[in-house]
Amino acid sequence: ATCGHGCKYGECMGPNKCKCFPGFTGKTCNQDLNECGLKPRPCEHRCMNTHGSYKCYCLNGYMLMPDGTCASSRTCAMVNCQYGCEEVKGEVQCLCPSGGLQLGPNGRTCIDIDECSTGKAVCSYNRRCVNTFGSYYCKCQLGYELKYVRGRYDCVDVNECVTNTHRCNLHAECLNTEGSFKCKCKQGYRGNGFDCT
């Protein structure tokens, strides 16, 4: 079986037919499945969608059970966790609903991990990392835009000379470059391209 468009998170099962791994969907298995939106809901109290999966967490005063349900817990209520808790070897520990969050110094609230500055984020060479609360995403570098080319999304150079987003002088020529542009004063004029006399 060959899948011309490829199967990002899945296997090719027939001519251009992908079988997605659990947690993924779409023709090329490139989309994350939002399990939190499924019926019946996978979590009793709160659900957080993650890349290829999901996490359950409970309201304060409840403890997360292995099956995703929430049980009322006096010990949990006493600890006063931001996102519910679990009991490990008789010890009560607060939980954070995403791998992009970590327990703060007080051991009760969750603080964001900046994946972009810690180097945990993986973005391709023509994309830059943008941190979000609990996660991150990859955005096209400045001077590039996301376009659907030859069956896939890619960051393509913006031709500032054509889109008229350059700041070249009236008496200068605009020259497009990869991810940017240059300005050159026309014949008979002198300057840096932004100022021509």
Automatic annotation (TrEMBL):
<dbReference type="InterPro" id="IPR049883">
    <property type="entry name" value="NOTCH1_EGF-like"/>
</dbReference>
<keyword id="KW-0245">EGF-like domain</keyword>
<keyword id="KW-0106">Calcium</keyword>
<dbReference type="InterPro" id="IPR000152">
    <property type="entry name" value="EGF-type_Asp/Asn_hydroxyl_site"/>
</dbReference>
<keyword id="KW-0677">Repeat</keyword>
<keyword id="KW-0217">Developmental protein</keyword>
<feature type="domain" description="EGF-like">
    <location>
        <begin position="32"/>
        <end position="71"/>
    </location>
</feature>
<dbReference type="GO" id="GO:0030154">
    <property type="term" value="P:cell differentiation"/>
</dbReference>
<keyword id="KW-0221">Differentiation</keyword>
<protein>
    <submittedName>
        <fullName>EGFL6 protein</fullName>
    </submittedName>
</protein>
<keyword id="KW-1015">Disulfide bond</keyword>
<feature type="domain" description="EGF-like">
    <location>
        <begin position="112"/>
        <end position="150"/>
    </location>
</feature>
<feature type="domain" description="EGF-like">
    <location>
        <begin position="157"/>
        <end position="195"/>
    </location>
</feature>
<dbReference type="InterPro" id="IPR001881">
    <property type="entry name" value="EGF-like_Ca-bd_dom"/>
</dbReference>
<dbReference type="GO" id="GO:0007155">
    <property type="term" value="P:cell adhesion"/>
</dbReference>
<dbReference type="InterPro" id="IPR052235">
    <property type="entry name" value="Nephronectin_domain"/>
</dbReference>
<keyword id="KW-0732">Signal</keyword>
<comment type="similarity">
    <text>Belongs to the nephronectin family.</text>
</comment>
<dbReference type="InterPro" id="IPR024731">
    <property type="entry name" value="NELL2-like_EGF"/>
</dbReference>
<dbReference type="GO" id="GO:0005509">
    <property type="term" value="F:calcium ion binding"/>
</dbReference>
<dbReference type="InterPro" id="IPR000742">
    <property type="entry name" value="EGF"/>
</dbReference>
<keyword id="KW-0130">Cell adhesion</keyword>
<dbReference type="Pfam" id="PF07645">
    <property type="entry name" value="EGF_CA"/>
</dbReference>
<dbReference type="Pfam" id="PF12947">
    <property type="entry name" value="EGF_3"/>
</dbReference>
<keyword id="KW-0272">Extracellular matrix</keyword>
<dbReference type="InterPro" id="IPR018097">
    <property type="entry name" value="EGF_Ca-bd_CS"/>
</dbReference>
<dbReference type="InterPro" id="IPR009030">
    <property type="entry name" value="Growth_fac_rcpt_cys_sf"/>
</dbReference>
<keyword id="KW-0964">Secreted</keyword>
